[in-house]
Design brief:
By secondary structure, the chain is of the alpha/beta class. The protein is built from twelve helices and 13 strands. The strands form three sheets. Strands 8-9-5-10-4-11-12-13 form an eight-stranded mixed sheet, with helices on both faces. Strands 1-2-3 form a three-stranded mixed sheet, with helices on both faces. It has a two-stranded antiparallel sheet with strand order 6-7.
């Protein structure tokens, strides 16, 4: 198996174009992780240098893959963040001054440039079909004539490349990544920045950096053609990635996906509790895989108990899975079918809640 010394030697053979040093010597291999047959790190550069360092990232990936026994490689290029404030010694400060030095709740910065609305699709539990719902919901919004972006924020298990049939790294223009255009959507996923079979061997800060890069360094829209809505497919749970998203951009609302059984509903409550704490409105709950296998009605009852809108249910349907595996969402593959009609209803409700009626094509 590759060892850390061989990984460092390979990376130091790739030169930093500014200092002329190897990547490790230049301090560009942040969070370098080497385990068994895989390696990964984040390359942080100045905001205006992403285009300069894109080929350096590619060279680093190639150098790591050339190491005998190396099977999986993850290199993420991202712009540097502002340094954390230096700690303040509080022993001699008054209680009022001490209170001023305590960490404050994250305050969202501006939304991505030229994006009108940001909608999070969340679940407390994995395996409830959240990504499938996010993809088809985005397609249903696009079918109404809206300009729609779809961000795969599940950095540990990106599924959008498969569900949308995407491949190939995004192009860089003027220091910004260009989202893939597919099925009428503008899509970005960490799965496009790494190999299809790469394991994301990242700690929380590295995952947060990857999300920040995709969120703020992707050209979602322009002044002439702004993006009407960015749908963000969150990973399950309430961890670093969710908090990073909330910190980096104001969310206009969230949709929670659950299945009818209690084990999923309990986690859906936790997801809603997170949005309540950070003052993000939950615009609705969708019960997925409703039917004989998982039961039905649990989502509607839960929405009533939480006092949030119930958007409706979706049956367990093999055609939905087949569309995801084929890279063509069922809303696109069968726009006149029952499932597409259900998603059209969800989209219509969300357009009204988000105030996007004036931007959609008249139907």
């Amino acid at each position: 198996m590759p060892d850390r010394a061989s990984v460092i030697a390979a990376l130091d053979a790739v030169r930093d174009p500014k200092s002329g040093q190897g990547l490790v010597a230049a301090g560009l291999a942040q969070g370098l992780t080497v385990t068994d047959d895989r390696a990964g790190f984040v390359m942080e550069v100045a905001p205006g240098d992403t285009a300069l360092y894109a080929p350096v990232r590619d060279a680093a990936e190639a150098a790591l893959k050339a190491i005998p026994g190396m099977a999986r490689v993850s290199v993420v290029l991202t712009a540097e963040t502002a340094p954390a404030p230096r700690p303040v010694r509080t022993a001699s400060l008054s209680p009022q001054a001490v209170d001023q030095t305590r960490a404050k709740a994250p305050v969202p910065t501006d939304r991505p440039a030229h994006v009108r609305r940001v909608l999070a699709v969340a679940s407390g539990k994995g395996g409830v079909g959240k990504s499938t719902v996010a993809v088809n919901l985005a397609a249903a919004l696009a079918a109404r004539g809206l300009s729609v972006g779809l961000l795969d924020a599940d950095v540990y298990g990106p599924s959008l490349p498969t569900m949308l049939g995407m491949s190939g790294k995004p192009e860089y223009r003027d220091g910004m990544m260009q989202p893939h255009g597919v099925h009428g959507l503008k899509a970005m996923s960490v799965g496009l920045l790494t190999g299809a079979n790469d394991a994301m061997v990242w700690r929380g800060p590295m995952a947060s950096q990857a999300l920040t890069q995709m969120l703020t360094q992707t050209r979602w829209g322009t002044e002439q053609q702004p993006l009407d809505i960015l749908v963000v497919d969150l990973p399950p749970g309430t961890g670093d990635v969710q908090l990073t998203l909330i910190q980096k951009t104001p969310l206009d609302g969230a949709v929670i996906v659950t299945t009818p059984q209690e084990v999923a509903l309990a986690d859906a409550r936790r997801a809603h509790a997170l949005f309540v704490k950070v003052k993000v409105p939950t615009l609705g709950l969708i019960e997925n895989m409703s039917g004989d296998v998982f039961g039905r009605g649990g989502g509607e009852a839960e929405a009533g108990g939480l006092d949030i809108p119930y958007l409706g249910d979706l049956p367990l349907d093999s055609a939905v899975r087949e569309g995801g595996d084929a890279g063509v969402p069922l809303v696109v593959a069968a726009p006149d079918g029952y499932i597409a009609a259900r998603f059209a209803g969800f989209a219509a409700a969300l357009v009204e809640k988000l105030g996007l009626e004036g931007f959609q094509t008249q139907l």
